[in-house]
From TrEMBL:
InterPro entries: AAA_dom, DNA_Partitioning_ATPase, P-loop_NTPase. Residues 3-178 form the AAA domain. It comes from Veillonella absiana. PANTHER family: P-LOOP CONTAINING NUCLEOSIDE TRIPHOSPHATE HYDROLASE, PARA FAMILY PROTEIN CT_582. CDD domains: ParAB_family. Signal peptide: none annotated. Pfam families: AAA_31. This is AAA family ATPase.
Amino acid sequence: MGKVIAITNQKGGVGKTTTSVNLSACLAKSGKKVLMLDLDPQGNASSGLGIDKDSLESCIYDVLIDGEDIANIIQLTMLKNLFVAPATIQLAGAEVELVGIVSRETILKKALKSIKKEYDFIIIDCPPSLGLLTLNALTAADSALIPIQCEFYALEGVSQLVKTITIVQQTSNKDLEIEGVLLTMFDGRTNLSIQVAEEVKKFFGTKVYKTIIPRNVRLSEAPSYGEPVIVYDPKSKGAAVYNSLAKEVAKNTKEQSKKTKDKKKQEE
Ligand SMILES: Nc1ncnc2c1ncn2[C@@H]1O[C@H](COP(=O)(O)OP(=O)(O)OP(=O)(O)O)[C@@H](O)[C@H]1O
């Protein structure tokens, strides 16, 4: 059964899309079958994986609002194990349209049910808000991965996000976990980056990934070529760090599923 990970932080520009695209690509390159699901109306994760949004007949909006089968919108990418459920700007309307729908926060979970077993990982790129799209992602997800930018006010809003995760655990998804916290755009030459990293580690403890994503120009250039960094420049630092993150995520997933199996055995 595929593991669903929501890449989320309501703060804008912290590296959600960069992480969704590159973590998905690195997991796929390591042999996992991956679906990158774009839930951000900006659709940058879709174009970052080479999807021509103008040529699409339908996108994740049609799945959420019109009940389209998600299998019908899935696109292939340049990597053989990597697939995309794309978003276009049409999705911007969904936040308002979802309000009128019964059980509105469980629509994505239901849509994923039929395809979850086909993938090893489903990575969801969330929008920079805590609205109904993010609520759908957190309800459908097994875990949330939180990127935090090593900048001023890094932790601002994080307690609100943790509160939202707690509410989701108490209401629509009791099994939701925090997958991990990822430090992004780290610049080791500045005291600020080092300070932020320390603060985040104090707040989240062992949940913080050992892999830290530095500022890397290749990571910011790759999206304009519609390629993940491991395709655009496989020898870059950006490619190395996202490969390392993918290894951590895969290792944690293996350990978690072993723990779950052992627990089940004990209960039997
Ligand atoms: N490690 C990095 N090094 C250099 N540039 C980066 C890095 N990570 C992200 N960027 C750049 O920073 C900008 C914001 O990143 P990204 O789009 O991934 O953030 P986001 O959280 O998804 O944004 P939004 O909240 O708008 O969806 C982009 O231009 C991206 O190319």
